[in-house]
């Protein structure tokens, strides 16, 4: 099965420290290793990936704006901005392609301030609690939704 286009993978604040940041919660893989897995998974569907990690909200917003022309889908782990950033949420709302929110941990099972995702109202769905595997599941979801939107890559 083959699709075409680019998935923008966005990583928010502190995800650059994956591997050393609370491994019991976030795993031992570095962000580079996680992103490599995403690229390999996407390639199975003929999709390319571009990754941006930033600790600055504005960088992530600009990347979403650019994706409106460049990308067919966005996979986003916004880190703690998930719980606070209506600006990133507004930007994502303006992106017409497929949007999947990912979390390594399961925020719903953690502190109350993590229970709200501002992004949830504008994404197609969320994968949380499966560690790095969640990113690959997100790619599968993207491929399925892109297939459903007119391609030939339905997974079901
Ligand atoms: C996270 C969950 C957030 O609550 C936290 O602030 C992060 C990582 C996750 O992947 O589990 O930075 O998005």
Query: In CATH's first tier, which class applies?
Result: Alpha Beta
- Bound ligands, each once: 1,3,4-trihydroxy-5-OXO-cyclohexanecarboxylic acid
Helix content: 25-40%
Q: Please state the second-level CATH architecture.
A: 3-Layer(aba) Sandwich
End-to-end span in angstroms?
12 Å
The number of strands is 5
Total domain modules: 1
Structural class designation: alpha/beta
Strand content: 15-25%
Outline the structure in words.
- There is one protein chain.
- The protein has 156 residues and is α/β, with parallel strands linked by helices.
- The chain has a single domain (6-148), classed as 3-Layer(aba) Sandwich (Rossmann fold).
- It is built from five helices and five strands, in the order βααβαβαββα.
- The protein has helices at 23-26, 31-43, 57-70, 86-93, 133-148, and strands at 6-11, 48-53, 73-77, 98-103, 125-128.
- Strands 2-1-3-4-5 form a five-stranded parallel beta sheet, with helices on both faces.
- Strand 3 (73-77), helix 4 (86-93) and strand 4 form a beta-alpha-beta unit.
- Helix 2 runs parallel beside helix 5 (133-148) and helix 3 runs parallel beside helix 4.
- 42% of the residues are buried.
- The model is unreliable at 152-156 (pLDDT under 50).
- It binds 1,3,4-trihydroxy-5-OXO-cyclohexanecarboxylic acid.
- Residues 14, 77, 79-80, 82, 103-105, 107, 114 line the site of 1,3,4-trihydroxy-5-OXO-cyclohexanecarboxylic acid.
